[in-house]
């Protein structure tokens, strides 16, 4: 008797099928495997190929039946998917009968194996056209004066310095070499001490107020400097706190002349000053383009999020939410803060991240469908290039990094996925109505920051007071 499959549920994206695998079919599969083993088995007391099947059944029957059942279930799942032309959103879930006696009978091939397979399918998405999608693309015009400023900054970083001899004191513009030990609340803090540090006074490289207090110091002299870390300091445990540094001045060097010419450019690896300027312009253009992309990409994704409405696979949303929630918990723990400190509750945060998860899943499915319908592909060469770019962030371990990713298909998909998404986004942009607006670099930065702040506020507002 052939396998029996009956659909028992079809609601939204959820499907359930009752499957009956005949005992005779399972027994036949077990018998075939036992005969294969019999032909090869070498068991003490029996000649090769002459081991009784009954003896092999006692030795291996139960483990073989487990393999047979798993294989039969996999075959049934494939048949259900193929016969019904389903696109699964996740792995099938198998619900076996809870009656252990019935299961044991099926395991002994004395009764049919009956179970329910629950599936969740991907929604059908009508891609349509993008004539209704409008995007403003900011284009930053980089003036020659900004190139000049960047050349000067580069020249300043490469300015020659000559050691001062005799009775000298440190002045603004000098390069000093110092040792220092920093304390907060009378205790030395991690990262607050160093030796033989070069610092150009007036460069603004250190905490505000630090460099000014070194002016007038002589080589060999010590001074205690009192400063306060900015409220926006990167290390939260130090932000806004007063600190004192015991500083020893070891050497003072005076700045040399700053010549901005072809010789200067050649000294830092360029053919000429013009080639250096070309590199800087290309770099600034690329930086502005990436900044602009942040704004128009969000607008484009917002438009697609509103454009497409379809049921979301619960499994995909839950999986995305769990990943976001784990990351949020880890970041909160690392900062040493609690939700109370942040002025929120777990219920509110879960509601926020649930909406984020739903948006990501909706956009992910929509972009995947758009890309497939448009024939968007990511070549192996593009993946390899992106992989090597990422590997460069780990100097000395590039080969291990590349080998690890190439040996893990799931990890490699983490690189291919974003490349595919960016290609699809560029494709949609090409099919949409795009209005370019020329702005200055400062305007670009301001507009991007304002747009991101407004988007964050709108996201919070959309949750409502009961979130």
Automatic annotation (TrEMBL):
Keywords: Cell cycle, Cell division, Chaperone, Cytoplasm, Isomerase, Rotamase. It is found in: Cytoplasm. It catalyses: [protein]-peptidylproline (omega=180) = [protein]-peptidylproline (omega=0). Residues 173-241 form the PPIase FKBP-type domain. Gene3D superfamilies: 3.10.50.40, Trigger factor ribosome-binding domain, Trigger factor, C-terminal domain. Its EC number is 5.2.1.8. GO terms for cellular component: cytoplasm. GO terms for molecular function: peptidyl-prolyl cis-trans isomerase activity; protein folding chaperone; ribosome binding. It holds the Pfam family Trigger_N. GO terms for biological process: 'de novo' cotranslational protein folding; cell division; protein transport; protein unfolding. PROSITE patterns: FKBP_PPIASE (PS50059). InterPro entries: PPIase_dom_sf, PPIase_FKBP_dom, Trig_fac, Trigger_fac_C, Trigger_fac_C_sf, Trigger_fac_ribosome-bd_bac, Trigger_fac_ribosome-bd_sf, Trigger_fact/SurA_dom_sf. Transmembrane segments: none annotated. PANTHER family: TRIGGER FACTOR CHAPERONE AND PEPTIDYL-PROLYL CIS/TRANS ISOMERASE, TRIGGER FACTOR-LIKE PROTEIN TIG, CHLOROPLASTIC. Involved in protein export. Acts as a chaperone by maintaining the newly synthesized protein in an open conformation. Functions as a peptidyl-prolyl cis-trans isomerase. Consists of 3 domains; the N-terminus binds the ribosome, the middle domain has PPIase activity, while the C-terminus has intrinsic chaperone activity on its own. This is Trigger factor. It comes from Methylovirgula ligni.
């Amino acid at each position: 008797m052939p396998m029996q499959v009956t659909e028992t549920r079809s609601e939204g994206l959820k499907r359930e099928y009752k499957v009956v695998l005949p005992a005779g079919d399972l027994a036949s599969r077990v018998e075939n495997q036992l005969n294969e083993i019999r032909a090869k088995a070498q068991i003490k007391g029996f000649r090769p190929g002459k081991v009784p099947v009954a003896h092999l059944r006692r030795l291996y029957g139960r483990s073989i039946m487990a393999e047979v059942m798993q294989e039969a279930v996999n075959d049934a799942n494939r048949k259900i998917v193929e016969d019904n032309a389903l696109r699964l959103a996740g792995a099938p879930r198998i619900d076996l009968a809870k009656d252990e006696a019935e299961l044991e009978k099926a395991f002994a091939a004395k009764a049919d194996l009956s179970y329910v397979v629950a599936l969740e399918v991907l929604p059908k998405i009508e891609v349509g056209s993008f004539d209704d999608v409008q995007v403003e693309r900011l284009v930053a015009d980089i003036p020659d004066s900004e190139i000049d400023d960047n050349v000067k900054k580069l020249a300043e970083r490469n300015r020659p310095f000559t050691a001062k001899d005799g009775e000298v004191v440190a002045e603004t513009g000098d390069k000093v070499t110092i040792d220092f030990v920093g304390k907060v609340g009378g205790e030395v803090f991690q990262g607050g001490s160093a030796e033989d540090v070069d610092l150009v006074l007036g460069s603004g490289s250190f905490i505000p107020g630090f460099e000014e207090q070194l002016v007038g110091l002589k080589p060999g002299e010590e001074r205690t400097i009192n400063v306060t870390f900015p409220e926006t300091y990167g290390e939260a445990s130090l932000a806004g706190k007063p600190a004192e540094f015991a500083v020893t001045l070891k050497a003072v060097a005076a700045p040399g002349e700053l010549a901005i010419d072809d010789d200067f450019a050649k000294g830092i690896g360029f053919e000429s000053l013009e080639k250096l300027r070309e590199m800087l312009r290309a770099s600034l253009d690329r930086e502005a383009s990436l900044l602009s992309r942040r704004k128009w990409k969000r607008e484009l994704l917002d438009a697609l999020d509103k454009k497409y409405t379809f049921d979301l696979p619960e499994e995909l949303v839950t999986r995305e939410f769990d990943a976001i929630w784990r990351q949020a918990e880890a970041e909160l723990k690392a900062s040493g803060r609690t939700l109370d400190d942040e002025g929120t509750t777990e219920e509110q945060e879960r509601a926020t991240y649930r909406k984020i998860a739903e948006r990501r899943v909706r956009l992910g499915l929509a972009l995947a469908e758009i890309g497939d319908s448009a024939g968007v592909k990511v070549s192996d060469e593009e993946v390899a290039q992106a992989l090597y770019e990422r590997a460069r962030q780990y100097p000395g371990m590039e080969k291990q990094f590349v080998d690890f990713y190439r040996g893990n298909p799931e990890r490699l998909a983490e690189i291919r996925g974003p490349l595919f998404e960016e290609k699809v986004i560029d494709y949609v942009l090409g099919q949409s109505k795009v209005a370019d607006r020329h702005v200055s670099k400062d305007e670009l930065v301001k507009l991007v920051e304002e747009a991101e702040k407004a988007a964050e506020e709108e996201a919070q507002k959309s949750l409502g007071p009961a979130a």
